[in-house]
Specification:
Blueprint: E1 8-10, H1 12-17, E2 19-20, E3 25-29, E4 46-48, E5 65-74, E6 83-89, E7 92-97, E8 100-105, E9 125-127, E10 134-142, E11 160-166, H2 167-205, H3 211-235, H4 239-267, H5 274-292, H6 297-322, H7 328-349
Parallel strand pairs: 1-5
Antiparallel strand pairs: 2-11, 3-4, 3-5, 5-10, 6-9, 6-11, 7-8, 7-10
Helix pairs in contact: 2-3, 3-4, 4-5, 4-6, 5-6, 6-7
Length: about 350
């Protein structure tokens, strides 16, 4: 009866919409193969919400194995279509349905140093339910010791996030999201490559105008950032790979913006003073916050640094406008439009 109160009821309607399994889970540290069994009594286990951030779940040991268990009620008359598990996790896992191993993500080992975390990135994994009305999902789980987690680009690090959904729409949605991500990044890469080659050619033919060199470097670093972002969003399954690709992608953006700012200084013959060099120092310091200040550090290395650079560009462009520099009004208009879009982007994320 205690278990039944925690059941998720799986019906054809609910699985078509998708069910986030964030309630009813029970957890116990330790390791015993009997804990995968449907008949095992887990009423004394600790209730837990595994979808929370890994740092908000002290009950999960940072070294060693533990088990999650969840009881499911199944309407076998309406659940007809094949189902999928969409999983995001911060550790390694073995997934059992009624005692049978159905999936393994990462490397689990009784030796904590051999555990390798793996994030499936919510790619659909087949879930074949039986005709039984009561079934148990049991997950053997462990964290990787000394793993580096990141929240860059608003990345979440749940211990274990599981969604059950019909297989066909899950596959279609995954393909759609992948296509959208690739299309956006590839478009940006193509545009930046065009700017890179164009300004580099200008510099080669007229090296006296160094602004073209710095414009080309801006485009190159932004292009490289987009490449790293593709690997981060679509192909970084290990925790450490996600950490490194996220940091590389984000760090390249303020470097690129700094070259953009340098190009503006050269273009309008502006002397590089304390403001310029202070901004350069802040960018280097921001790299540290981005990597090691969990949760909020990336906001300094990302949005804040970009905002400061754009504000500086606007300031230099306005000074040049007052000095009647040719073309300065275009830069003023462009920087103001950039600020408006930047603020709009930040506001709509809240």
């Amino acid at each position: 009866a205690d278990c039944a109160a925690q059941d998720y009821f799986l019906s054809g309607e609910s699985t078509n919409k998708g069910i986030l399994l964030d309630k009813g889970w029970r957890f116990h540290a330790g390791d015993d193969p009997e804990w995968a069994s449907t008949e095992y009594d887990d009423k004394d286990w600790k209730s837990i919400n595994p979808t929370l951030d890994i740092h908000a779940l002290p009950e999960i040991p940072r070294s060693g194995i533990g088990w999650f268990r969840l009881h499911l009620s199944v309407d076998s008359n309406s659940v007809i279509d094949p189902l999928a598990l969409l999983i995001q996790q911060s550790g390694a896992s073995e997934i059992y349905l009624d005692g049978a191993l159905i999936h393994r993500f990462g490397i689990l080992s009784t030796d904590p140093l051999k555990v390798r975390a793996y994030d499936p990135l919510k790619k659909p994994a087949l879930l074949s339910l039986t005709r039984k009305s009561h079934q148990v999902l049991a997950i053997r789980y462990a964290l990787q010791t000394n793993a580096s987690y990141t929240t860059i680009f608003e990345t979440r690090n749940p211990a274990l996030l599981v969604i059950i959904r019909n297989l066909t729409p899950s596959i279609e949605n995954e393909k759609k999201q992948t296509s959208i991500t690739l299309a956006m990044q590839v478009f940006t890469i193509g545009f930046c490559f065009m700017l890179f080659t164009l300004h580099l050619a200008f510099y080669i033919f007229y090296p006296a105008q160094k602004a073209n060199l710095y414009f080309s470097l801006f485009a190159f670093f932004f292009l490289t950032s987009c490449l790293a972002r593709i690997f981060f969003f679509l192909y970084s399954h290990t925790v450490n790979a996600k950490f490194y690709f996220a940091n590389i992608s984000l760090d390249l953006i303020p470097i690129g913006y700094f070259f953009l700012l340098t190009a503006i200084y050269f273009l309008f013959d502006q002397k590089r003073g304390k403001l310029y060099w202070s901004l350069m120092a802040l960018i280097v310091i921001a790299f540290v916050f981005t990597a090691y200040a969990y949760g909020w550090g990336w906001l300094i290395g990302g949005p804040l640094m970009q905002l400061l650079v754009v504000l500086n560009v606007t300031y230099i462009a306005m000074l040049s406008l007052r000095r009647n520099k040719r073309g300065s009004w275009i830069m003023v208009a462009g920087s103001i439009i950039c600020l408006i879009f930047f603020v709009g982007f930040i506001l709509q994320r809240k």
